[in-house]
Fold this sequence. Notes:
Elements: H1 7-14, E1 20-24, H2 29-41, E2 47-54, H3 61-75, E3 78-83, H4 93-110, E4 119-122, H5 127-139, H6 144-147, E5 153-155, E6 160-162, H7 170-179, H8 196-211, H9 215-244, E7 245-246, E8 249-251, H10 252-255, H11 260-275, H12 281-293, E9 303-306, E10 309-314, E11 317-322, E12 332-334, E13 342-344, E14 349-355, E15 375-378, E16 385-386, E17 395-396, H13 397-404, H14 408-413, E18 416-419, E19 422-426, E20 430-431, E21 443-449
Parallel strand pairs: 1-2, 1-4, 2-3, 4-6
Antiparallel strand pairs: 5-6, 7-8, 8-11, 9-10, 10-11, 12-15, 13-14, 14-21, 15-18, 16-17, 18-19, 19-20
Helix pairs in contact: 2-7, 5-9, 9-11, 11-12
Keywords: ATP-binding, Cytoplasm, Ligase, Nucleotide-binding, tRNA processing
GO molecular function: ATP binding; tRNA(Ile)-lysidine synthase activity
Subcellular location: Cytoplasm
Amino acid sequence: MTLALDVAQQALQHLPKLKRFWVGLSGGIDSSVLLHLCHTTCPKHIQLKAIHVNHGLSPNADQWQRHCQSVCKKLGVELITVDVAVNEQGKGIEDAARQARWKAYEEVIGGAKGLVEHELLVLGHHADDQAETLLLNLLRGSGLRGAQGMSHFTQRQIFSVFRPMLNIEKTAIVDYARHYGLNWVDDESNQDVYFRRNFLRQEIFPTLVKQWPAYASTMGRFCQNMQALNSVVDEWLQEDLVKVLDNDKLNLDVLSQWSLHRQKQILLYWLQQSTHYAPPASQLNEFVRQINSSKEADVGRCELRFSKWALIQSKRHLELIQQTQLDVTAFHYVWDDLSKPIAVPEISAQLTSDAANDLSNSPLLIRPPKINEVVTVRSRVGGERAWPSYRGKANSLKKIYQEMGVPNWLRETTPLIFYDQELVCAVGQFVDRRFLSNETESLQFTLQPLEN
Length: 452
């Protein structure tokens, strides 16, 4: 046997407190070998689970799912299956399927019972996959990050990703599967050279191997060199980012002191660190041009949308928010019982009412509603007036937001609380002085993420 790989031992070098493996299992030969390796090497204190994503793109998709269920049952490994809808929406089918798969991984692992600090998703990419990825990235005109290919170990928001077979060639994986008598499924779409990865696999690499038989390991070594170089660049960018960050926002006055090329790299680094996605280069270039030509009065004029995220200008700062915060549906709810949270799904949040004895240090406590007062939670519709505690007189909500520097997008997503028809507060922004209280039965309203 040419394949001797202690997956668990390698993973523990990265995450010494590792408690759980999640294996991405398609049912193909690569993930089948990976599952067998994990099952063989995983110590008893590490829980092993598998995730199968059914894309529904093949007439054999349900058969593949049943195969994965059968394999996991024999090994005694818990399998979670997820059906996804692949929506191209202007993307290629491969990219759309990949995004749906990653979303499924995030939902399964993020929603797992007993979510632990060190969750690890293990994937079966190998050296031949790395060579394909590198060449595809270069043919797209990718920069340094694309030239580094896939990494053995990466950290995402909810979990880490580990690719233990990235230096192992396909031939060794096939030998391993045959040696242990493993069964696997074959995706018929892998033979369709319409897809670019398949074209490389079927048409290009069989010719390349005749002149460069070790092309996969050589290209893998190139990726490792690029990863080492990229880590040094990231250290420099992190130093720049610390200088330009201002309470989770980017300070445009500091950013604009550097060259356009450096600005782009800082933005790209920040976005990838924060979202694990990157906008297309053409959009990023145009966005950088716009923010360098904008003036302080152009609040919210510059905007860049990518994936599910949006990068927007707020005076002389850049803010990163989810696109759902820009396209908010109007809402209006009656809050009958303040002792219970009220959900506001339009902004993916919930409101809670906290008693003063828990928040005695807060300077902005609110009197409870009177017995006959109806409490409502609404979005802004226009024409509202308030008298914030810091002002000498009342004014329109629009003027108040302007003088407070509240960005346009936040104005639409900030819940307004009313007692009958009187505006009590804009949650997280201000309290109307007419409803301030220093009594022990006072309240404070808090906005929290909506619980699943």
